[in-house]
Amino acid sequence: MQDDIDGIHSDDSGGEHLLKQGEPLREQDRFLPIANITKIMKKGIPANGKIAKDARECIQECVSEFISFITSEASDRCHMEKRKTINGEDILCAMYALGFENYIDPLKLYLNKYRESVAAERTVSEESKEPQTSSEPGNDLHCERNQE
């Protein structure tokens, strides 16, 4: 049995996901919140447009499965490197390994901008006046493609 990052165990044979206490995962714990999915979907349609319940649920399931798919690959990478925490580079490498290389450059850019923003906030909150150097993490990404 392999440990996932969020404390959920997954059976390598594709078995049922269980919480550490042995309780099966509830459906609402397996999927992203439907309200969040609906909010994002509504941004792509006219203001008076409607989204059918089955369409929202279908997208909810697909997006949740996609995130699980990518996270599982990233978790495998961490496990091989004997690390317990998935980071941004792990997600990018997982996406590359799974054939989503077209997303790597924009996501790398976003990750670097996010990290710069966090560093700037930290600097302001610490009221430090020393300049922070940025090595732009993520630019030296070393990923391998799955050969399946």
TrEMBL record:
Transmembrane segments: none annotated. GO terms for cellular component: CCAAT-binding factor complex. It is found in: Nucleus. Gene3D superfamilies: Histone, subunit A. The keyword Lipid metabolism does not apply. Component of the sequence-specific heterotrimeric transcription factor (NF-Y) which specifically recognizes a 5'-CCAAT-3' box motif found in the promoters of its target genes. NF-Y can function as both an activator and a repressor, depending on its interacting cofactors. Belongs to the NFYB/HAP3 subunit family. This is Nuclear transcription factor Y subunit beta.
